[in-house]
Design goal:
The structure is a single chain. By secondary structure, this protein is mostly helical. The protein has one domain: MetI-like fold (Orthogonal Bundle), CATH 1.10.3720. 71% of the residues lie in helices and 1% in strands. The chain has 16 helices and 2 strands. A hairpin with a 7-residue loop joins β1 and β2. This is Xylobiose ABC transporter membrane protein. It is found in: Cell membrane.
């Protein structure tokens, strides 16, 4: 009589799994033809324009005639441009504030909206209305509501002081962060709502048996399960925050002075107001590089790059 060791039993289990996989239906990996339309679209509308912008950043061009090669002149000018350096700092500041405000709100609202009650569905549908509006329409709406002469601040000076929220840097930045959160928090809430509904209910049932309350369930079950969703949402916030343009254009026009001139708006001023498309292209490329580097840092620090799908390889 022979005795089966633990190593032998492990090999038997692996062999059984392989036999089950071989006997089951095989799933063929989709061919390249399925990805060809999306790949072509990405190359034409993302990669090619980025290459053209990179080429223009080494030229001097006012929009008329042929671009003239200028070497590194545009890049040297950016290094010594105080407004450019300030615009990068403002872009990062507004992005960080946006992430700090939108992330906790989106998580709480998303987890709440994941409930199955009818009243939650109705309130969620109403709450998602700002997501259907364009950024331009939202900016015009809040510009009218916050007008220092006829808007809400003018009628409630006991709360808003002189009523001119666009006259100081701190309040102007606060308006930009608030308007961005008002419009885009529903989008991230929708992401968290789907992720919260995908959490296995057996985890909460086991926690209830162990006597865990709602707060402990949220802190020890919900938040860890939403980790990857949180990282995805934050990356979207970072990219969206660094490329914000229309909100600044309509609400503050970069003012007061240059106190809210973020990099995307400064690029617009250089290219379409000063007709320096070479300098504007250099700013655009810096913005792309900054967004890419920050996103990669978030992915690396969070460990998101090590996430694996249970269906990977199909």
């Amino acid at each position: 009589m022979t005795t089966t060791t633990s190593a032998d039993s492990a090999e038997l289990r692996v062999a059984r799994r392989r036999s089950v996989r071989r006997s089951g239906p095989t799933v063929a990996r989709p061919g390249f033809a399925w990805a060809a339309p999306a790949t072509l679209f990405f190359l034409l509308f993302a990669v090619l324009p980025l290459i053209l912008v990179a080429v223009l950043s080494f030229t001097s061009w006012d929009g008329l005639g042929a671009p003239q090669y200028a070497g590194l002149d545009n890049w040297k000018a950016l290094v010594h441009d105080h407004t450019m350096i300030q615009s990068l700092w403002l872009s990062v500041l507004i992005t960080v504030l946006g992430v700090a405000v939108q992330t906790p709100l989106s998580i709480l609202l998303g987890v709440w909206a994941a409930g199955r009650q009818r009243n939650r569905a109705i309130l969620s549908a109403i709450y998602f209305v700002p997501l259907l509006l364009s950024a331009t329409a939202v900016s015009i709406l809040w510009r009218a509501l916050l007008d220092p002469n006829f808007g809400v601040p003018a009628q409630a000076k006991w709360l808003f002081g002189d009523g001119n929220l666009f006259g100081k840097q701190a309040s102007a930045i606060g308006v930009l962060v608030f308007v961005g959160a008002w419009q885009y928090t529903p989008f991230h809430t929708l992401i968290y709502q789907g992720a919260a509904r995908a959490i296995p209910q057996v985890l909460y049932q086991a926690a209830q048996i162990d006597g865990a309350g709602r707060f402990r369930q949220f802190w020890h079950i919900t938040l860890p399960q939403l980790r990857n969703t949180m990282i995805t949402s934050m990356i979207l916030m970072v990219v969206g925050g660094l490329t914000t343009f229309d909100t600044v254009l309509i609400l503050t026009q970069g003012g007061p002075g240059t106190d809210t001139t973020i990099s995307a708006y400064y690029m617009y001023e250089q290219a379409f107001k000063s007709f320096d498309f070479g300098g504007g292209s250099a700013i655009a490329l810096v913005l792309v590089l900054a967004a890419t580097i920050i996103s990669l840092i978030v992915v690396k620090v969070s460990g998101y790059d090590k996430m694996r799908s249970s269906s990977e390889g199909l």
